[in-house]
Amino acid sequence: MRTSEEVVAIGKAQIFAEEGREGVTVHVGFFQKELAPVLAKNLAAVRTEEDEFRIKGREYYWLCRLRTCESKVWTSPEMKALRLPTSSMRNMESVRKLIAKHFDRERSQVCKA
Asked: Comparing C-alpha atoms, which of 1, 97, 100 is closest to residue 58?
């Protein structure tokens, strides 16, 4: 669970300079708890030519430079060895669309009050 303020902050974050470039997608994953520092460091160290990770609090961000279904990073021995806790992942564009939709609705309701 995240507060609306936390979700808005996640949506405003631009973790990777490449975000927005053609063929690049960014996903955000939500853990229930922050990762142990060693596990966070090890996740951030998992890289391929196409994939990169950053960890910030209870979220991790995955930059993928090809179609996400073509990425092999999640089946790599390095990733499997991490034994990450369960998480939920969303495309950042989807997160931002949801924020825009719900933020606009909340603003409209406040103005009517």
From this structure: 1
